[in-house]
Amino acid sequence: MGPPGTGKGTQATRLSAAHGLRAISSGDTLRNEIHENTDIGRRARPFVESGGLVPDEVITEVMLAGIDRIPDDAGFLLDGFPRTVPQAEALDAGLTARGRKLDAVLDFQLDDQAIVDRIVSRLVCKKCGRTYNTRFHPPTSPGQCDNCGSELSQRADDSEAVVQTRLKTYREQTAPLIGYYGERGILRGVDASSSADVVEREISAIVRSLGKR
Ligand code: AMP
């Protein structure tokens, strides 16, 4: 968990490769449903475009279905879910029913100005989902993905106006999860202001300390 633009997606991709974890991103899943114009996509679209949250029951159903596709013996990593206390409660219940549990919750911490600076200059590959930043981590060829060569574009909700709404949504609805997971003793803070390599090393040490990967 962490506000938008703190590097959750970047680290999810790196960690899943380094530790053999299956990563499921709620934002990517919703953008895909919207692109495919599915029933879920049509219900989610207005919330995603305005920077609000998709209703808890919609996203919980989508994410539990994603977890069900992961083999029982594989570790997984959730990026962007849960984002409200009711989602966290539904996730706990869903995992318990499946004989699974969360080992750690990573809380990405970064100040608001740095978040806005990162987000308004963020570019995303439409095909493979890799993210870049025109100021801090530009692609080798402008506008083109280093990984797959496809075109890079700005996410529709990465405008400055929508980012402010997403930050407000985070503070009001998601930040209470810090207390929720803190009480359960599984919350780990991550200083998201460092470079992606440094953050990856910090998180990898946490994953290794769990003694599973
Ligand atoms: P993200 O890519 O994580 O920044 O998510 C983009 C947008 O998808 C958010 O601004 C929300 O509108 C929606 N979204 C992603 N994850 C959730 C979630 N767990 N609960 C509700 N809405 C979500």
What's the CATH class of one domain, please?
Alpha Beta
| pLDDT < 50 stretches | none
Number of strands: 7
The ligands bound in this entry are: adenosine monophosphate
CATH architecture of one domain: 3-Layer(aba) Sandwich
Main β sheet profile: 3 strands, antiparallel
Please count the helical segments. 9
Please write the string of helix (H) and strand (E) elements.
HEHHHEHEHEEEHHEH
Portion of residues within helices: 40-55%
Biggest sheet, strands in spatial order? 5-4-6
Proportion of β residues?
5-15%
Overall mean pLDDT stands at: 94
Describe this structure in words.
By secondary structure, the protein is an alpha/beta fold. Strands 5-4-6 form a 3-stranded antiparallel sheet. The two termini are 20 Å apart. It has a domain at 8-108 and 191-209: P-loop containing nucleotide triphosphate hydrolases (Rossmann fold, 3-Layer(aba) Sandwich), CATH 3.40.50. α1 (8-19) packs across α9 and α4 packs parallel to α5 (85-97). 50% of the residues lie in helices and 13% in strands. The site of adenosine monophosphate (AMP) has 18 residues, from α2 and α3.
Features:
single chain; 213 residues; Rossmann fold; three-stranded antiparallel beta sheet; two-stranded parallel sheet; 9 helices; 13% strand; binds adenosine monophosphate
